[in-house]
Amino acid sequence: MRKTIDLHGCLTSQAKAYLLKTLDSCPSSVNELVVIHGSNHGDKLAQLVRKQIKHPRISKIFLTMNPGETILELKAVKTGTKK
Predict the structure, then answer these.
(1) Where do the Smr domain residues begin and end (predicted)?
(2) Which of 3, 29, 37, 53 has the fewest CB atoms within 10 Å distance of its CB?
(3) Are the C-beta atoms of 77 and 27 separated by less than 8 Å?
């Protein structure tokens, strides 16, 4: 399943916090996160999403034909096992 978030108008610090919170709370059924960061007003948000953000759920980062969007492929959430 695909989820989309829009970071337009966010400061870099706000965007980072929102993106990490979204990654932490995404259910396991979400395997793609489409991040709309824009491209007309600088590339700070794009650089944050494409190069700086680190999270255990991110398995791959895809650039699209749209320079204002990045797709994050997500790993499934690991659940604990009973012993």
Answers:
(1) 2-75
(2) 29
(3) yes
CATH value at residue 38: 3.30.1370.110
Q: Could you tell me if 62 and 25 are in contact, meaning their C-beta atoms sit under 8 angstroms apart? A: no
Q: Among 41, 3, 39, which residue's Cα sits nearest to residue 19?
A: 3
Count of domains for the chain? 1
The structure tokens listed for 31 are: 């395997």
Whole-model pTM over 0.85: yes
Tens digit of pLDDT for each residue in 56-75?
A: 999 999 999 999 999 999 99
Three-class SS of residue 27?
Answer: coil
